[in-house]
Amino acid sequence: MSITEEGSPQRSSMLFKEDEAVLCFHGPLLYEAKVLKAELWTEQSSEELGPHYYIHYKGWKNKWDEWVPEERVLKINEENLKRQADLKSNVEGKKGGPKVGPGAGVTPRSVEERAASKRKKEDQAAKEEEFIKRPEIKIPIPDALKVQLVDDWENITKNGKLVPLPRSPTIAQLLDLYRESIKSKKTVARDSRADDIVAEITEGLKQYFNRALGNVLLYRQERTQYQEQLRKLQQVHDGTAHSTGNSRNDIAGKTMADIYGAEHLLRLFVQMPNLIAHTNMDQDATEILKDHFVNILNFMARNMKELFLDYAALNNPSSQPVSNSSTASASPANVPPAGTVAAGEDVDMKDTATGPPA
């Protein structure tokens, strides 16, 4: 007999041998079984020490085979057979007692729950592995637009200057201008399919923006302004907007892409790597998107004076209320404080973005 580090005795011999017929506890009952394997578990091999036996229960399917500690195994003799019969009699005599047979002491629900939990963990692990293996996309942001991002952050969060809404041009108008600029470039390679792809991508950008805006694109100070625009759109949708004037007609059928402008579209491009990472796009589709995004960003950089707000023209902080509620959305991770976006550095939001919109 040897002594473990904890000071408890550990026997080096085994009471039962392989292929021996035995009785084994499963739940509250004893069942006839057979020892398939016998091993002495040590600290190096398992957290559970001592003799262990791999048991097959007689008449049960192999899926119930299991490793059990020695205290669950008994020799087949008259005394233990009587004990087996007494236990069975006691259980059967109790109304609503556990079932006798495979899985006794383990309810179907608990088995199903454990199986479901295991499948869920395996599925989650597979999804995480698949996500890690997905191609990483980096969208290079022109240096002038990086400066614009910092300027945007500083004026809104430090100076209280919100972007006046609706913008002119809006995101929808900006993307239309981009499409027209593409069409005006007559080349031999251009065809109707190329125009269709540009149309699909610009339309998809508007849809992405409408979904992402309230989730990941706003600063805390912009929440009240956003809620006001949302309320106006909802009133038109519900038919409760005031009928006087042209206010209802001005926003009828519109989305947030028809209200916000280049400042907020630029934030979407910085978040886009993370949004794309949560899709099932293959490498080829991702590269096509990236090429078009780069073209749109270059178009925005070439036309900054026409597309972006001149904050210097806003002499006074916005009269719109600025929310300081602790429950408001945090500043978007894509636009860091001044000085943290270096010129010439590609923006990659894989590690910092908050995730795709719901």
TrEMBL record:
Signal peptide: none annotated. SUPFAM superfamilies: Chromo domain-like. InterPro entries: Chromo-like_dom_sf, Chromo/chromo_shadow_dom, MRG, MRG_C_sf, MRG_dom, MSL3_chromo-like. Residues 110-127 have a biased composition (Basic and acidic residues). Transmembrane segments: none annotated. Keywords: Chromatin regulator, Nucleus, Transcription, Transcription regulation. Belongs to the MRG family. This is Chromatin modification-related protein EAF3.
